[in-house]
Amino acid sequence: MAAAATSAATATATATSVTHLSPLSKSVDKPSFASFKTLHKTQSFTLTHKIHSKTAAKNPISDVIASPESYPDEENSIFYDDGDDKPREECGVVGIYGDPEASRLCYLALHALQHRGQEGAGIVVATPDGVLKSVTGVGLVSEVFNQSKLDQLPGDNAIGHVRYSTAGQSMLKNVQPFVAGYRFGRVGVAHNGNLVNYQSLRAQLEENGSIFGTSSDTEVVLHLIAISKQRPFFLRIVEACEKLKGAYSMVFLTEDKLVAVRDPYGFRPLVMGRRSNGAIVFASETCALDLIEATYEREVNPGEVLIIDSDGVQSLCLMQHPEPKSCIFEHIYFSLPNSVVFGKSVYESRRIFGEILATESPVDCDVVIAVPDSGVVAAIGYANKAGVPFQQGLIRSHYVGRTFIEPSQRIRDFGVKLKLSPVRAVLEGKRVVVVDDSIVRGTTSSKIVRLLKEAGAKEVHMRIASPPIIASCYYGVDTPSSEELISNRMSVEEIREYIGSDSLAFLDFNSLKKMLAADSPNFCYACFSGKYPVLPSGIVKRVGDFVDDGLNGDIDLIDGGWLQGSKDQNGKDLDINFEQQDGKVPV
């Protein structure tokens, strides 16, 4: 594949027309390298397409050297289960080019993306003297950065990252953006997604002498860039990305360039906007553009590489161009309702999900409430369609974070109560429909039902604004192993009995696809169907350990325990062999 990329890059091509791609479009007719005509920052993004040709240089390159931050060891700390039983979006990215307040704008944009990761944040800037400087840390954006730290980050160009990772020592390592050195300079990178061929790529690189400083899949990208012999620099990124499989929306920063790239399937969102002064902004969601007063221009297309420098904007296309498979959970749970993701309003999607539930799974009730915050819009849609009042029956505390306490079972039972408080005046004596976005393990749902009944609800009817989750995600979402997913091992009626509700209904899978209409084939439904667009390869302990957000530490290995995925794209079962240790199957 890399050889093909080199051949395409060095070939002399005649000018040709290239269709402007949409992430939700079936038409994906792309050449190996297609470029937009370069333009100045004050010009429009309405561009003419032409083939772009470059000659690869034959200069040798140096080893990449990653430089992650180091933090105190909290290996013995015990994290309290706060009861938030949801899939976790792994991270959010921001890139800003051409604004003297780049680091501060990046800081604000990361605030807007805080819902995509609350356990770490970082910003890298290219200073006026051509040096990449970074500030990274564990915690919320407001905890990592202050005025003095932002003062340390002067420059017109910046990238930023927020992340979620699992509890324990691993959260203290690998904080992005990474900054690495190679023969011709330095490069920073921030990554949202997960590379399913990470292990095989890393093994090949290590065999050839690469030394890794982190356990992150993102570092593989830096090593691939370092060993590439392509010139100029952005063709190194193109060649590296041609070797990647899985989900990646990434922003790169050099001394004088900002590069944004999205994987050919378009699993994770990445949008582009522009501020009134001509500064160009990239972000995981449009809500970040809104906060810093940047006008939305378009999505970064699946398989597109955008290069921003003093000469303007240039667009290249990766050689792979499969049918897009954007993550449907961005609309169900991850993204903010005020964002436009994959060309669709998240608010409108969730409202319609609720309307479908009310139409297909009605029940006599007195009030409709939501599990805040992600269930609110679907609950509004349900209530409006059913003609039943929507009220705030659960109050969410936004000030509950990790608590370092001994997690006895008695204390664990308070987890949901710390976050959700029932409103007795709304619930007492009422037949209640409670709308949530999803059920993962079922533990939180059972506690919510109990809370509502303890507050006096006469009946509790659960309505879930997504189909049952039966399979884990490999593409940048931290979900439990399939064995832990309640819908993978119980029927709907068995789940209803387990959580204790009077009735339970999920959004019908076929109704979901019907609602998406012509865009339906362009979404990934692997968590609902077990059919994966790109199957992972490698040796993993469990699906949850395979998922790496670019920050969450080691991947445990089991000799001989190859994970191939649960089903192929035709729905045929595949073998999953979890090798036993000490007579037990690891979970």
Protein model, in words:
The protein has 587 residues and is of the alpha+beta class. The chain folds into two domains: 2-43 and 89-325, 4-Layer Sandwich (Glutamine Phosphoribosylpyrophosphate, subunit 1, domain 1); 345-517, 3-Layer(aba) Sandwich (Rossmann fold), CATH 3.40.50. The chain is 26% helix and 22% strand. It contains 20 helices and 28 strands. The protein has a seven-stranded antiparallel sheet with strand order 3-9-10-11-12-16-17, with helices on one face. Strand 19 and strand 20 (344-345) form a beta hairpin. Helix 1 (2-10) packs antiparallel against helix 7 (233-242) and helix 6 crosses helix 7 (233-242). The longest helix has 15 residues, at 346-360. The radius of gyration is 24 Å and the shape is globular.
What attributes characterize this protein structure?
alpha+beta, 587 residues, seven-stranded antiparallel β-sheet, globular, Rossmann fold, Glutamine Phosphoribosylpyrophosphate, subunit 1, domain 1
- Percent strand equals 15-25%
CATH superfamily of the largest domain: Aminohydrolase, N-terminal nucleophile (Ntn) domain
Mean model confidence by pLDDT = 78
Number of helices: 20
Cα gyration radius (Å): 24 Å
Q: Please tell me the total number of domains.
A: 2
What is the total tally of β strands? 28
CATH architecture of the largest domain: 4-Layer Sandwich
Please mark out the parts with pLDDT under 50 across 5 or more consecutive residues, or reply none.
Answer: 1-83, 166-170, 402-407, 539-587
CATH class of the largest domain: Alpha Beta
Trace the largest sheet across and list its strands. Answer: 3-9-10-11-12-16-17
Q: What is the name of the CATH topology of the largest domain?
A: Glutamine Phosphoribosylpyrophosphate, subunit 1, domain 1
Category by helix and strand content: alpha+beta
